[in-house]
């Protein structure tokens, strides 16, 4: 059975939900403490949502220096699948595994909503089971989700097909190019502001679109063995 590591930083909020989603989708969730310098032989890593280190400084700016992140960066650069959800996406940007940065939402309010997204590429480890152009609904809940990058970076992301998700039916936070999620050039590292781990069960609905992230990575790992 595939082993998916879920990192817990001080202030992580959604690590338990991410672990539950991993198990519902048929893998073993392996808890990884932020102070550990071992990834415990996991096959993939999820950096979950929350308020790591209390969101002091920019969100994710302190978590980046957690000992476990040295291992995550090394593994990601070696091709391991890594998914950063919301605060996890912020940590991936702060760690320079993904380009750009997040600033406060344009309207200066915390946003909590069922957000419509368009899938822009399925050429990543975490989106291979989606169709390009699929429109999905995933929970969005953050205060610092306004994705910013310089014009050259935005152009490179667009030209390389590294924009993975775009907000549709309105931009909720002012993100450049309506960007909700991006990937690295290799497609193994994906970060997004919405929370797929909250869209995996009928009970909490409204969609089950989050499951496709987990089926995607599990399919990738199964094909690799
Ligand atoms: N849900 C989250 O992960 C929130 C991330 C971060 N604390 C923010 O408000 O932007």
Structure description:
The chain is 23% helix and 25% strand. The chain has helices spanning 15-24, 67-77, 87-94, 151-159, 211-224; strands at residues 3-8, 28-33, 44-47, 82-85, 101-103, 111-119, 135-142, 146-148, 163-167, 179-183, 189-192. A 9-stranded mixed sheet has the order 2-1-3-4-11-10-9-6-7, with helices on both faces. Strand 1 (3-8), helix 1 (15-24) and strand 2 form a beta-alpha-beta unit. The longest helix has 14 residues, at 211-224. 52% of the residues are buried. The model has no long low-confidence stretch (mean pLDDT 97). Glutamine (GLN) binds at residues 49-51, 55, 59, 86-87, 141-145.
How are the elements arranged and paired?
Layout: E1 3-8, H1 15-24, E2 28-33, E3 44-47, H2 67-77, E4 82-85, H3 87-94, E5 101-103, E6 111-119, E7 135-142, E8 146-148, H4 151-159, E9 163-167, E10 179-183, E11 189-192, H5 211-224
Parallel strand pairs: 1-2, 1-3, 3-4, 4-11
Antiparallel strand pairs: 5-8, 6-7, 6-9, 9-10, 10-11
Bound molecules: glutamine (GLN).
């Amino acid at each position: 059975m595939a082993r998916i590591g879920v990192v817990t930083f001080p202030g992580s909020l959604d690590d338990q939900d991410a672990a539950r989603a991993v198990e519902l989708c048929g893998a073993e969730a392996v808890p990884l403490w932020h102070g550990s310098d071992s990834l415990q032989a996991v096959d993939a890593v999820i950096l979950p949502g929350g308020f790591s280190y209390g969101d002091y400084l920019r969100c994710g700016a302190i978590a980046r220096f957690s000992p476990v992140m040295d291992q995550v960066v090394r593994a990601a650069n070696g091709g391991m699948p890594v998914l950063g959800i919301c605060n996890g996406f912020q940590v991936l940007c702060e760690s320079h595994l993904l380009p750009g940065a997040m600033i406060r939402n344009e309207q200066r309010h915390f946003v909590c909503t069922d957000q419509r997204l368009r899938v822009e590429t399925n050429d990543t480890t975490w989106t291979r089971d989606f169709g390009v152009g699929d429109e999905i609904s995933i929970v969005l809940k953050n205060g610092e989700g306004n994705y910013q990058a310089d014009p050259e970076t935005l152009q490179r992301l667009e030209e390389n097909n590294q924009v993975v998700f775009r907000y549709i039916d309105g931009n909720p936070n002012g993100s450049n190019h309506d960007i909700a999620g991006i990937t690295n050039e290799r497609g193994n590292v994906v970060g997004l502001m919405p929370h797929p781990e909250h869209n995996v069960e009928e009970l909490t609905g409204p969609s089950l679109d989050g499951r496709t992230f987990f089926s995607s990575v599990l399919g990738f790992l199964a094909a690799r063995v």
